[in-house]
């Protein structure tokens, strides 16, 4: 009935699914990290680096970064299409919304690339 | 007791304002609609809708001390603590989110548009049987809690998602009616109905805030109906 414009999944069902799945990933990651930090005892730089450098953690971190980016996009896309509309901005609404969405998208792309470089960049 | 009523006449007023009235209830727990009748005796210029005065027609939906409901079946004691005793004023405003025509009368056009979009009538393209399409008692039971809606708009006008996108988000009332026909064993337009609901707005703007459930004067649960449609979309989509 309504044509989607720039939602991530291109339809409401997939956006909704992305939101739930990414939330589960973030939740599981947080609980796991909390558990790790509570049981790991004295952490020093070397053991932290070894832990984070393991292939399992690299994959987990990648999943987390992608999940956070997707979750943020779907969520903020919803916020912009709720509040930055002609009800609040009249004729300028489309422009305002577009600028906000582009800014959010840019920030997320930078975040995503930066995150991936940190995880896989080695050194 | 004190009554404060939203007044707006587009022909004479530049902007809406609240007007105070003093009404003598003789301590009785009257319905809000009765109070409006008493106010109207003092001030003939007050405009509001009403018809059945027993919660059946859905025409006197309004916002009473911040909560939507039907004035005719809401006693003062249920509006807010202290109102019946006269410690607090009764505050009446039109349903939020819809354009005001005058005083407590709103333009329900946007609400009905969304209702129309869900094609609220039985659709079945199989040949009609000689007498009627039969339903088992179990099949019939599936539309309990759905068909009773009187389209008062209390729910949709209390839903923030409907406030922000009244043209794109169908709102709880229309979605409840959509499910009423999706759940009806005599209707077989299921696929066509679902295919119109899976965009990001029509249904998925519902964030489960549940204002709709808390205000429905008929005790219906649009959030649950929306959840059922979502499950149907999920099964169909993956
Ligand atoms: S549950 Fe959904 S439809 Fe009901 S008030 Fe909340 S957002 Fe609106
Ligand atoms: S679901 Fe309830 S509140 Fe909403 S329009 Fe129907 S009767 Fe009114
Ligand atoms: S007057 Fe008919 S529902 Fe209140």
Automatic annotation (TrEMBL), chain B:
The keyword tRNA processing does not apply. Its EC number is 1.3.5.1. It catalyses: a quinone + succinate = fumarate + a quinol. Residues 139-169 form the 4Fe-4S ferredoxin-type domain. The keyword Cell inner membrane does not apply. GO terms for molecular function: 2 iron, 2 sulfur cluster binding; 3 iron, 4 sulfur cluster binding; 4 iron, 4 sulfur cluster binding; electron transfer activity; metal ion binding; succinate dehydrogenase (quinone) activity. It comes from the Bacteria. Its cofactor is [3Fe-4S] cluster; [2Fe-2S] cluster; [4Fe-4S] cluster. NCBIfam families: dhsB (TIGR00384), PRK05950.1 (NF004616). Two distinct, membrane-bound, FAD-containing enzymes are responsible for the catalysis of fumarate and succinate interconversion; the fumarate reductase is used in anaerobic growth, and the succinate dehydrogenase is used in aerobic growth. This is Succinate dehydrogenase iron-sulfur subunit.
